[in-house]
Amino acid sequence: MTTTPPPSHASRAHSFNAAAAQYGANRPSYPPALFDTIEELAARPLVGARVVDVGAGTGIATALLRARGAHVVAVEPGDGMAAEFHRGLPDVPIVRGNGNALPLADACADLITYAQAWHWTDPARSVPEALRVLRPGGALALWWNTSALDIPWIDAQTDRIERHFGRDGVVAKNGDGVRTALADPSGRLDFVHRTVRWSRRVPVDTHLANIGSHSIFLTHGEENATAFLAQERTHLLAAFPDGTVEEVYDVELLVARNA
To answer: Which of 57, 63, 159, 196 lies at 20 to 30 Å from 29 by C-alpha?
Structure first.
């Protein structure tokens, strides 16, 4: 395990900008069932909805929301991520900002979404901001693709990452109670929690590029990350001799309505 001090929350949040192309090309998407569930819990269809996708990154979730018929405005603080977003979605409006101070008018959104992004905010600020920007009856949806730790090879890989880099204190552990408590410590939001399982089959190189795009890799130095990924390739090829990895995810979804 590395003995260097852990990187700061801010440095991890900003680390994606230098790896935006890698992030956009290799990170997993989200299944249709997730958006079906969002519509169910938000009590309205995405078709025609005014959606604000915060921490939009390279636009993975934004593109899927738009494909469901939503009118989406993206909010993204990072230069590199915003540039990659523009390359992939040149006709989707994107404004610079973050969830702690949304650059948007009051009561302008039917739905605010955070895909893999809420944990980079300060809930003491981002909760009131979400409630300000949501119209009455609108909804806030937060979700994370989390590794399915009941799959033996995924659990083993997670252990190897923790032994090498240390336990990840930025991204919350799986679980309804833990995730909900961290999402809104004030308890102002009445979250409903759902889990959606899905999987994708990708080449070993894509899987390694995916995990290598996570902030814990990006902030521990290229040499450190490269050494780990080289060792990890050996483990993966032993488990998947055909060179194709089946990544299994549990999307942890929280949705709260603005009364």
So the answer is: 159
